[in-house]
Automatic annotation (TrEMBL), chains A, B:
Organism this protein belongs to: Pseudoprimorskyibacter insulae
Annotated family: Belongs to the mannose-6-phosphate isomerase type 2 family.
Name the UniProt record assigns to this protein: mannose-1-phosphate guanylyltransferase
Gene3D superfamilies: Jelly Rolls, Spore Coat Polysaccharide Biosynthesis Protein SpsA, Chain A
Domain MannoseP isomerase/GMP-like beta-helix: 302-354
EC number in record: 2.7.7.13
Enzyme class: transferase
Catalytically driven reaction(s): alpha-D-mannose 1-phosphate + GTP + H(+) = GDP-alpha-D-mannose + diphosphate
């Protein structure tokens, strides 16, 4: 048992509301939406330092290496990474984390459950608020964090304080009930009433308290998720929840499954700034703006614009807006979104429309993240393709061959260990290797810095599925 | 002397009103704004066939190889390409063409002078109209083509017909005078009056008629331009007007210099459709539209939009608009423009703003056209750069060396003849060559199809100015 607080970072989402920057292959929490760190990195760092244990991360299989890489970039290590075989909303995920943590640290372990795709600019204030909430959680309450509202927002759920509670207090207050997303009129009433806070989906409780609540209010979930945790496999340091058992867990939020039923609820008010960045309008709201209310990225130019979000997310791409009012423009080399800010919640329609067109931009970023690093296609011609491939130190691609293409590899940064049939050699900056069609080959980075390689493929068929894998340290087929 | 009509294609402009597709390095007339041909190609083809001689093209030095390549693509050859050392507006250019043509074909040669960046959808109707105007031009009049107006446009000059003339006639009419761009009220009056046509800047006259007019109304121009034509050099088939003499020619339009002073004016009405594509609003107007009035390119998706132009000009880039009304969005991989259509005439402000920022996108396309073909940078890293290089059949890059970089070349289409120091060899698809730092090298395309090559540079400095040229068939330094 530890007196520390264990951050439980929920990192499974695949939101489409921030397309084109956030895509299914690389969702919002991993993107650098605000500043130089991703939202996930900022979340992990916010809940670190004195009083905090290393985080437990819950994520999906496609994101596990992004999680480890992003944590490594900020020189943090997780105490565990739990892989959800598929997304089942927050109730099963938090239950899995509670069971896992209780087994490791005992029932008294304090869990701070937080989404990893929110913005909380004042990390110090937030940590102080978490510390202030800890005694009430230790005492056996389920503490929710309630954000002081500054507008009649209809996009969030609300928390109604109990009679006599103080919505501006610096310590936990009693909570009457959870309120679902309101209409505009009701939102205005709640803002005026003063005893309502926004539900940020951030919770503090001991593993024992929340497990007891699950047993009382969601016994069926406990059965399925316990089996998934007990049957979990470990794989390269990841804890992979058992898929069959997990499939039996209901897809439900912790608000519905537990919070709306429990009576040991408390709320900790927080007034120092928070946003769920639930759309480009929210990103605009949280961004630094010029005098006319425009939030422009470095490569964006606003001429005679007002209240407009203007972002270029790709190096070497300039965006210019002229005479725009309350618009949002998000540009990347492969996809551009333009809409009034008022239509921010309709961005998912763009994703659906592109899916219907069969356009890969609906779900896929130009950079494709893999266990060993990432690659992007630089140009595709009739019988050739050029890729940039970046391999992280110590990583290795599978031993493979192709039926329809040969490859030229030119190392431009770092050092590669290259296997071609029977020969193995080190290839360094400004050296090249030729992989004939059919040759069995492998690329590794034995060094201490990322290895960057340009691959020029030629052949009659260049699809990713022309691959025969002989060995793979990441156990792919 | 020939009975044929000689098309004189004015191809010097560097308009910024269609940025980002049109840039100084590759202006509007060379872009595929409407359909599969460039405006220049469509203009050349429109004035070809029975009754027309091969065209004379007036263009600037940076565009001479684009002109020859685009004519070759549509299997046309020019009768001459006159290079203007710098743009001096239409009066000196047309005078140079008249002097050059008169020297070749005599004073009776008929000249059809036309901008090469306009849209005239019905080529057959236009050719018939030119034919109908020919007798009046042969008889010694300066015939201007007047477009039947369909709206009170303030962006064009107007032509006022003489009393008793018929603005709907199928033969030339007498012209009272040229009218400058009007304000909205005056434009509405002229549209209502019915005896005004738009000035399209298209003219038909004999070389002798227009030379006489220049001698009568612009004697100083005749002196300077005659010297520029007499002193012209020929170079790879181009006629390069003498720069010092040309510098003495006044920068003035033919309307001001000649047409507003001459009294042998006639106008040929034309009602079958024309646009100068003077802005993205005009492009929208001329484009095919859906039921809601949206003009979308293949990779553009309009969700709940109205009256909007939505274009992606780069392969592999999707553009989505949601809830847009009367907007224009033009996206490329390296630059995006968003504005209300009503602001179309302010696009040049975008170019100015980017120039002030030092952004190359103000003037330069990703593809850089050279005498031997073109290249584009695919990715630039700290110590490496990858380029796609396309060399036209028969073309050759200069014999050169670099102080700071080595290069790997991989041929992916066609065949290259490669010189590296003392060795010369043929390199074909899927073969590579290494050019060590300091080696004297050259790349040629000896074949009949374009040669495509991927170049991977590594070194401490990768600027285009790290080049020592030893020989260049295009006489560059």
């Amino acid at each position: 048992m530890s007196a520390q607080i264990h951050p439980i970072l929920l990192c499974g989402g695949s939101g489409t509301r921030l397309w084109p920057l956030s895509r299914k292959s690389y969702p919002k929490q991993f993107a650098k939406l605000m500043g130089d760190e991703s939202l996930f990195q900022a979340s992990a760092r916010r809940l670190s330092g004195e009083g905090f244990a290393a985080p437990v991360v819950l994520t999906g299989d496609p994101f596990r290496f992004i999680v480890t890489e992003q944590l490594a970039q900020i020189e943090m290590g997780p105490s565990g990474i739990l892989i959800e075989p598929e997304g089942r909303n927050t109730a099963p995920a938090i239950l899995a984390a509670a069971l896992w943590l209780a087994a490791q640290k005992g029932d008294d372990a304090l869990m701070l459950v937080a989404p990893s795709d929110h913005v909380i600019p004042d990390a110090e204030a937030f940590r102080a608020t978490v510390a202030a909430a800890a005694p009430r959680a230790k005492a056996g309450d389920l503490v929710t964090f309630g954000i002081t509202p500054d507008r009649p927002e209809t996009g969030y759920g609300y928390l109604e304080l109990a009679a006599g509670a103080d919505a501006t207090a610096a310590e936990p207050q009693s909570l009457a009930r959870f309120v679902e997303k309101p209409d505009a009129e009701r939102a205005a009433e709640m803002l005026a009433a003063g005893n309502f806070l926004w539900n940020a989906g951030i919770f503090l409780f001991t593993a024992g308290t929340i497990l007891a609540a699950y047993r009382a209010h969601a016994a069926d979930l406990v059965e399925a998720v316990s089996a998934a945790v007990e049957g979990a496999g470990t794989d390269l340091g990841f804890t992979r929840l058992a898929p069959e058992a997990w499939a039996g867990a209901k897809d439900i939020s912790i608000d519905y499954a537990i919070m709306e039923k429990a009576d040991n609820l408390a709320v900790m008010p927080y007034a120092a700034g928070w946003s769920d960045l639930g759309g480009w309008d929210a990103v605009w709201m949280e961004s630094a703006k010029d005098e006319a209310g425009n939030a422009c990225s470095a490569q964006a130019t606003a001429i005679d614009c007002q209240g407009t979000l203007l972002r270029s997310e790709t190096d070497g791409q300039q965006v210019v807006g002229i005479g725009l009012e309350d618009m949002m423009v998000v540009a990347m080399s492969d996809a551009v979104l333009v809409a009034p800010k008022a239509e921010a919640q309709r961005v998912k329609e763009a994703v659906s429309a592109l899916k219907a067109k069969g356009a890969s931009q609906a779900v896929q970023l130009p950079r494709d993240y893999r266990p060993w690093g990432w690659y992007e296609s630089l140009v595709i011609g009739g019988r050739f393709q050029v890729k940039r491939i970046v391999v992280t130190p110590g990583a290795s691609l599978s031993l493979q061959s192709h039926h329809h293409r040969s490859e030229h590899w030119i190392v431009v940064e770092g050092t590669a260990k290259v296997t071609v049939d029977e020969t193995v050699k080190l290839v360094t900056e400004n050296q090249s290797v030729y992989i004939p069609l059919g040759a069995v080959h492998r690329m590794e980075n034995p060094g201490k810095v990322p290895m960057v390689l340009i691959e020029v493929q030629t052949g009659s068929y260049l699809g990713e599925d022309d691959i025969v894998r002989y060995e793979d340290i990441y156990a792919r087929n």
